[in-house]
Amino acid sequence: MLGLYADVIIEISHEKLDRPFQYKIPENLRDTIYPGARVEIPFGNANRVIRGYVISISDRPEFPPERMKEIIGIPEGLGESGPEDQLIRLAIWMKRHYGGTLIQALRVVFPVKKAVRPKEKKTVILCVSQERAEEAAAECEKKHRVAQARLLQALASCSEMDLSLLKDRFNIGLPVIRRMEEHGFIKLSVEKDYRNPAIAENSRKKVCELTEAQRSIVSDFAKNYHMGLKGTSLLFGVTGSGKTEVYMEMIAEVIADGKQAIVLIPEIALTFQTVMRFSARFGSRVSYLHSKLSQGERYDQFCRARDGEIDIMIGPRSALFTPFSNLGIIIIDEEHEGSYKAETMPKYHARETAIERGRLAGAAVVLGSATPSVDSFYHAKRGEYRLYQLSDRISDTGLPIVTVADLRQELTRGNRSIFSDVLREKMKDRLKKKEQIMLFLNRRGFAGFVSCRKCGVVMKCPHCDVSLSLHGRSKLVCHYCGYETPMIKTCPECGSKYVGGMRAGTEQVEEAVKQMFPEARVLRMDADTTKEKGGYDRILSAFANEEADILVGTQMIVKGHDFSKVTLVGILAADMSLYANDHRAGERTFQLLTQAAGRAGRADRPGEVVIQTYSPEHYSVAAASHQDYNVFYAEEIGYRKLMGYPPVSHMLKVLIEDRDPDRSAEMASLMAEAVRASGKAAVIGPAQDSIWKLRDVYRNVFYIRHADMEVLADVKDLLENWRRDNPTGSTQVQFDFDPM
Ligand code: ADP
Ligand code: ZN
Ligand code: ZN
């Protein structure tokens, strides 16, 4: 008696996603209809025949079956499933694996349809030969007209370019463009009504010859691809080892096969250079998405993909849902990046979702990184992903030289400033040589942990091995299991009274730099200085134009642009991210330190890095200082195994929110109890969330752990059913699988 009724939605890309309508499934279709299937149905009073999509099938009628209409059939010519079918199935998969409602998942997968107002297209066109432009660029370089030089260089390799791209991604301001126009080098053309934000077709197509290492990866990929072994691969290659070149060859292979490609890149790393490289290679068959596109523009780009006008879509997380009808490959660059995890329901991870989309579409998935996530490397080691490695940089610039400064010794020597002696000396030297410096303050995951400044010991939960957070002045709390202990007055290890939370912010660093080097020009980049629109790009372009000697910033400065004059990177407090109160702290620290170090000496001279830390012996810090991923991974995976943390085991975070603190706590313990009673999986908690009160809502949390992700999905279903059967009033529940 299963599968008698189908919920059908009529229009997917509608602002208010249509509610589903229930239809009877005729007997002859019972074996052929599945969630995601396209069907023809009678609709409205006149029973007009229209098309819809089945989103679920059940045996429970929602109203008397004798009044229910019947599905007519499956439209002709749709033997092969189209992109919408696949995307609906993907949404159903997302609902099961990440929670939330199906409508929430469908909204993520299908962008809202909105009318697009035609826009003006402003293009900058080169008016001299490419050789002349290169000469002029060299002249400008000599005269330190850096922005002009950059503009000419860009146009020398690609003679026509979108103005907004030049401004946003290459940090070139309108005055510079005006000046070059007056000098007759370029002209600015304005045209109405444009659709393609990518670069003009007539760029110079440079295909470089692959190195031996690159070639063997591409040919192995191609061999597997053509044998039908799509699956997932991990490309582990140090920065500058030629990964992007490998991606492009793989894409060329897939396109030659008549298929399409999606390239995911974290928003912040989606630089002008990236777009230009793909456009120079693939011309106007490339399009890209970024957060500045309106809903309508995004929808428009998706239509172009659907209509076969483009073959390659580049963009952040959401580009994953580009409705290509013949998808051949999904590439995720910088796959370790936290921004691939969605922050709102459903809290999907683009990596796992890409693998599912790849499976549905029969497409290959390629993950790339210089510091792979522990998850991906684990799967690669177990043979679930193919592992490709590129261990050398293409250019001869060696890896940066790293010095570790032990802040405990600085304190013993009586140095209580933010800067170690060695960092201060090196800064003095660079300022004298007129080279640039970046100071990176690691505040990622900073959550008020408490440590000893003399011996470096950090207060941790005895049950979870994550750091305790300071609540008010008197209490230390674990946000995994709820353990509490009074705030310490002296260090339990060495008896020192220098115990407390770390409080340094970027502003204090800026102040300290100005005091020490009054003549240095300092720029600061953090959440404050980048709040207004364009702030981020403006600071980067000022630094690129050498309007400052020192750039102080948070993790925002780690990614994105390369500055060829930077020869020194100082990492001020490597520890901060080490003691964030979650199990990924070590991984994030290794990634941040390695990537920050990679900012130094990218051009002709090798760079230097100073890592300041209270825990030089911690494996994340030590491995980053030797840029040794394998050492880091071996330690980290041992720890995850011991503690039963992902990827060895999986975690489901259940967040309970209510305006009434007692109710929030009560619901959390009732729901945790329901899971315990089922005996399906281990429960940790409940406890107050690290942010207990947010906008007047009280948040309690518990964690469920199991080696099998499917069991966690079952537990989520169990909790959803529990909520249906028990009145939970205004209480909200959010699920987060393998939280980050
Ligand atoms: P990654 O993506 O690993 O950081 P890229 O693909 O950006 O590395 O390559 C780094 C630099 O080396 C780029 O300037 C690129 O054009 C160049 N490059 C890559 N592969 C080759 C090659 N086979 N021959 C010459 N130059 C290359
Ligand atoms: Zn101590
Ligand atoms: Zn604990």
Unreliable stretches (pLDDT < 50, length at least 5) are: 192-204
Strand arrangement across the biggest beta sheet? 10-11-9-12-13-8-14
Task: Characterize the main sheet.
Answer: 7 strands, parallel
What CATH architecture of the largest domain would you give? 3-Layer(aba) Sandwich
Number of strands: 29
Instruction: Provide the CATH superfamily of the largest domain.
Output: P-loop containing nucleotide triphosphate hydrolases
Report the CATH topology name of the largest domain. Rossmann fold
The domain tally reads 5
Total of DSSP H or I helical runs spanning 4+ residues: 21
User: Helix amount, in percent?
Assistant: 25-40%
Class per helix and strand makeup: alpha/beta
User: Rounded to an integer, what's the Rg over CA atoms?
Assistant: 28 Å
Strand percentage = 15-25%
The oligomeric state is single chain
Mean pLDDT: 85
Q: Cα distance, first to last residue?
A: 42 Å
- What is the general shape? globular
Question: What report would you give on this structure?
Answer:
The protein is an alpha/beta fold. The chain folds into five domains: 5-109, PriA, 3(prime) DNA-binding domain (GIY-YIG endonuclease, 3-Layer(aba) Sandwich), CATH 3.40.1440; 120-192, no CATH class; 212-390, 3-Layer(aba) Sandwich (Rossmann fold), CATH 3.40.50; 401-446 and 502-641, Rossmann fold, CATH 3.40.50.300; 650-737, 2-Layer Sandwich (Alpha-Beta Plaits). It has 21 helices and 29 strands. It has a seven-stranded parallel beta sheet with strand order 10-11-9-12-13-8-14, sandwiched between helices. A six-stranded parallel beta sheet has the order 15-25-24-16-23-22, with helices on both faces. It has a four-stranded antiparallel beta sheet with strand order 2-1-4-3, covered by helices on one side. A hairpin with a 3-residue loop joins strand 18 and strand 19 (475-477). The longest helix is centred in the C-terminal third of the chain and has 18 residues, at 661-678. It is globular. It starts with a strand and ends with a strand. The model is unreliable at 192-204 (pLDDT under 50). The chain binds adenosine-5'-diphosphate and zinc ion (2 copies).
